[in-house]
Automatic annotation (TrEMBL):
Protein name stated in the entry: Fructose-1-phosphate kinase
InterPro entries hit by this protein: PUA-like_sf
Species whose genome carries this gene: Methylomonas methanica
Length: 111
């Protein structure tokens, strides 16, 4: 058994936005932050017939994000990531102390 809580959403909803799917398929996106837990390490998900494996899941303060984290999310910088997230979620405030689940993943190599 793992030390994670019960998932709040299905893994198939981890990466859904078409631009983020394209970034993941291109290898430009290797992380997804969510308010809830969508997957456990070792689980897989499929995007356009390509299998990805969740390699780690951890909690992070949103205020601890770096530019490197934003690039792993598929964005050029933290400033652009923050701006787009706030535009996508009307009425949301950027709470530096807010906790998110960081889902890291990689393309699974064919056997």
């Amino acid at each position: 058994m793992n030390h994670y809580p019960e998932k709040s959403c299905s893994i198939d909803r981890l990466v859904r936005h078409p631009k983020l799917v394209a970034a993941t398929l291109a290898g430009e996106k290797t992380q997804q932050r969510r308010d809830g837990l969508y997957a456990y390490p070792g689980e897989t998900f499929v995007l356009e017939d390509v299998v990805f494996e969740v390699t780690s899941v951890e909690r992070q303060r949103i205020g601890d994000m770096s530019d490197a984290d934003a690039r792993a999310e598929g964005y050029p910088s933290l400033a652009i990531y923050k701006d787009l997230i706030l535009k996508m979620h009307s009425g949301m405030e950027w709470n530096e102390d807010g906790l998110v689940w960081v889902h890291s993943f990689r393309r699974q190599q064919p056997e």
